[in-house]
Amino acid sequence: MRLIARFALDKLENFEIIDVYESKIERQSVDKKNPTVKSLMSKYPSAIWMERKIKDEFGIEFEGAFDTRPLVKHERFPKHIYPLRKDFNKKEIDFTVFTPYKYEEIEGDNVFVVPVGPIHAGIIEPGHFQFSQAGEEILHLEVRHYYKYRGIEKMVEGKKVNEIKKIVERISGNESIAYQIAFMDILSQASEIEIPNSLKQKYFTLLELERIIHHLTDLGFIPNDAGFGAALAFMSKLTEEARRVMAKITGHRFGFGAIKEEVEIDYQELTKFIDYLKKEVEFFEDWINDIASLWDRFNTTGALSRQKAAKYGVVGVTARASGVELDVRNNLFYKNFGYKMQLGKKGEVSDRFRVRIKEVLNSIEMIKNFKTDKKEKLMLNEFKDGEYMSFVESSIGELFMYMKIKDGVVDRFYVRDPSHINWQAFHTTIYKDIIADFPLINKSFDLSYAGNDL
C-alpha cells in the first residue's frame, strides 16, 4: 500500500497526524505535552522528509526514526520556533548561532566529497547536492533543499478561500495549471457543486498543454546535457511557440489565472498548432533515434528499477518509466478522450526520455478529443466548513492538495508536490554512474524545487 502523504494539524488542544494511503486515511491524535508518534520511515522511505518537515514545523518527535536531522530549518534557524503551530505569528525571526548540518558521506581511502550548490550556474533554483566520490564513480549523493522556504502553508492560514488563489497558482511555475485544477476541485467540493464535463474538458486541455510544454523543455535539455546542443535549439523553439499559444489562450505564458468558473478556448487555432507540433515531434523522434552516441549515454544511466520505484512510492514520468502503472489520469473520463498509459521498462534515462515523447503525442491526441463548443459555467456556492482533498496528474506526477476550512477561512492548507516524493528516490539512481552524468539524470527527472520548498 503506497503512502501518499503524512502531515500534521494543530488543533489547539492537541496535534493530529494524518496519513493518506492509496486506499485509506488514518488519523492519530498527539498529546501536546509529549508530542511523539511512531515513525513510518523504516517501512516507507518517502516518510523521511515528511517526518523531518513535521518535526521542524510542529516540534513533533517520531519514535524509531533513523534520521532526525533538520530539513526545513537550516543552520541559523532558531531551534525552538515551530512556524506551523497556531501560536506562531511572527512576521520576522532573528537568526541564531550557526549549527553545522551533518551530511551523509562515505568514508574510506581515496574517497572524496564534491559539494554542488546551492547556487548553480544558469537560471535554476537553489538546491545542494553532496557527492561522495571514488574517482569518477559516485558512491553516494545527498540532496538538500529548502533554501527558498516561503512559509506558504502558514501564509494562507486565516485568509478567505478566494484570497489564496493567486498564491496557490504560483507555488510551482511548471505545474500552475495542475495546482489551479486541484484548487478548483476543492472549491467545487466545498460548494457541493459538480464541475460540468465540458468545463473539465477545457481544464484538461490546458493541463495537457502545460504537460506538453514541460516535456518539450526536457526533451531539449536531456540530449543537450549529453553534449547534443542541436536538440535543445530545436526544442526551445517549439517550447517558446507552445508558451505563446498558452499566453494567447489564457493571457499568461504560465497560464496564471486560467482555471476559472468559465473558460473560453479557441480550439481552431489550438488544433492548427498541435497538428504542426505533432509533425515536428515525430521528426524529432526519428532524428534522435538515429544518433547512436546519444543512446549510448542514455541507456544504463540513472536506472531506477521497478521494485525500487515502488518502494520509494515515486510518481509521474519517473514511476511510469520504471514500469509502475501509476497515473491520476488512468480513469474512465480520461480514457474516453484517448488517454493511454505510457510505460518504460528499466527506469533509465532512455526510458524517461521515450516516455516523455510518447506522452507529448498522447497529449496532442487528447487535446483534439477534448474539443468542445459547449459554454457551461461553474456556479460556486458559499464554501462549507470541512476538510477537502484533491489529486491531479501534473507534468511531474501526482499532486496531492488538502485544505481545511473552518469558520469560513483556511484553517490548514497542505500540498504534497510530486517532487517531494521523487527527490527522495533520486540518489538511488546515481550509484556508480559518473559525476558528468549527474546533469543528464537530473534533467531526466526534472523535479521542482519550488513545489518542494513550500
From TrEMBL:
GO terms for molecular function: NAD binding; NADH dehydrogenase (ubiquinone) activity; oxidoreductase activity, acting on NAD(P)H; quinone binding. Residues 227-371 form the NADH-quinone oxidoreductase subunit D domain. Pfam families: Complex1_30kDa, Complex1_49kDa. Gene3D superfamilies: Cytochrome-c3 Hydrogenase, chain B (1.10.645.10), NADH:ubiquinone oxidoreductase, 30kDa subunit (3.30.460.80). Residues 30-91 form the NADH:ubiquinone oxidoreductase 30kDa subunit domain. Keywords: NAD, Oxidoreductase. Coiled coil: none annotated. This is Hydrogenase-3, subunit E. It comes from Nautilia profundicola (strain ATCC BAA-1463 / DSM 18972 / AmH). The lineage of its organism: Bacteria, Pseudomonadati, Campylobacterota, Epsilonproteobacteria, Nautiliales.
